[in-house]
Amino acid sequence: MQHDTIIILDYGSQYSQLIARRVREANVYCELYSWRTAADVILAHEPKGFILSGGPNSVTEQGAPTLPDYILSNGVPVLGICYGMQLLAHRLGGRVAGSKKREYGPAILRVDALENPLFEGWKFEGTGYPQQVWMSHGDKVESLPAGFEALAHTDNSPLAAAAHLEQSYYALQFHPEVVHTAQGQRLLSNFVHHVCGCGADWTPTNFIDEQVAAIRAQVGDGRVVLGLSGGVDSAVAATLIHRALANQLTCIFVDHGLLRQDEALQVVETFKREMGMQLVAVNAIEEYLEALEGVSDPEQKRRIIGEKFVRIFEREANKLGQINFLAQGTIYPDVIESAGKDKKDAHLIKSHHNVGGLPENMQFELVEPLRSLFKDEVRRTGTALGLPDELVWRQPFPGPGLAIRCLGEISWERLERLRKADAIFVEALGQAGMLRQGTQQAFAVLLPVKSVGVMGDGRTYQEVVALRAVTSEDFMTADWARLPYDFLAYVSRRIVNEVDGVNRVVLDITSKPPGTIEWE
Ligand code: XMP
């Protein structure tokens, strides 16, 4: 199925991926490309509209990113956001002025052209108007090019929204893609549906049907192997491929002993028993513990775990006989980031893949059915495929697992201690309704430190557990979650009472930056 497609040109804004996610939320397929991408790559999509992102530059500056010619000559609608607006104005003969004073934060938008399709449905939302929008800019458009008219203003920006109605060029000074713009999702949805005329055909059900057909066409009667990590991406990829190919797919799950409580069991239970997949579950706990003995340097831990995985995966895959395809849970942000770094849209293997990289010398063709999906779309697809909520809504978990949360040297005893403390914390968060909302990642860390305590009449000298819980949009930055004191008291009491060898619990109150989310 050929989807109505919107192309978003990336000019370097921190919000570019968000624009793409919002368009997809409106059930319209879109792709994000650097503004430098060759015209034929972009035009091969036969786009129904373009969105130009914001960016850090000034359009008037020497060497600033420019507007490719095909954008204006293609005859489809264009929406410029922030830098995108300035680009359109600059190119078409308007005046863009630099400003030393940045406008950053909320502003009140007053719509002057309520009949414009961009604002359809705004006033019926119950929130009324004026509306809050989010500004983040230095330069601004001071006079519009010929043929444009102003659509909305704020106190600071007389030209907060403008359009050339005949050509269907639209320009916004504010950012509709961020949640702080109250009607932003509605505005983007209006643009893609009412201005560009896109249908709402990008849905999980359509995606599943198309991918099932595509996987069958690619693989034929070949055989596929996939490394299950217990994470969301590989789980959804496996389920989708299994729906397409049934027993032509074999999954390999390497239990390295570094998973959280009951996780290994849950993987086998879900995929083998409930879904009837061919699953090779390898108990490699001893092998990993031996390799990690005496190691406390975090990078060395990561390297050992990665290398071990490759070796075990290779060994197990070889036992399966003739296999021609390797499936991976690569998702769209991995593709965009690899393409961005290497300046080419390469078919790259996920470098920090959850299961720790894959054998380089194995001659496989890749099957990557989730390559076009954002994380939230992967989750929706997982739900549509019937995967349980615990799996679909799992918080991120690092490939090296508890090895990088068990600080210092690793032993089975210490891992078990950490697993118990972590299970208590996560269970309590779940009961308090804070696992999906309130924290984006939460876990316990076992510190390589002992401290003195008193229990009953006796003195204790035992290990310390740190609680780490963060709120974050994308895990690039994060803030520590403000958990209620009573909740923390409950968790601390339970950990010290129930986990042998731990007599003290502390809370990590560091944001990222300057800290990282993990401790190692
Ligand atoms: P940091 O600690 O860098 O983590 O703030 C950001 C996000 O990445 C996860 N993380 C990893 N994931 N392998 C992974 O697959 C790793 O080695 C690794 N280290 C950190 C971390 O859990 C957080 O979500």
What does this molecule look like?
- There is one protein chain.
- The protein is α/β, with parallel strands linked by helices.
- It has helices spanning 16-25, 39-43, 69-73, 83-91, 184-195, 204-219, 232-245, 263-274, 285-292, 298-319, 332-342, 375-384, 389-392, 412-431, 485-498, and strands at 5-10, 29-34, 49-52, 78-81, 95-97, 103-111, 131-137, 140-143, 149-153, 161-164, 169-172, 224-228, 249-255, 278-283, 325-327, 365-367, 441-455, 458-471, 479-480, 502-507.
- A 9-stranded mixed beta sheet has the order 2-1-3-4-11-10-9-6-7, sandwiched between helices. It has a 5-stranded parallel beta sheet with strand order 14-13-12-15-16, sandwiched between helices. Strands 17, 18, 19 and 20 form a 4-stranded mixed beta sheet that branches.
- Bound molecules: xanthosine-5'-monophosphate.
- Xanthosine-5'-monophosphate (XMP) binds at residues 302, 352, 354, 396, 398-400, 441, 475, 512, 516-518.
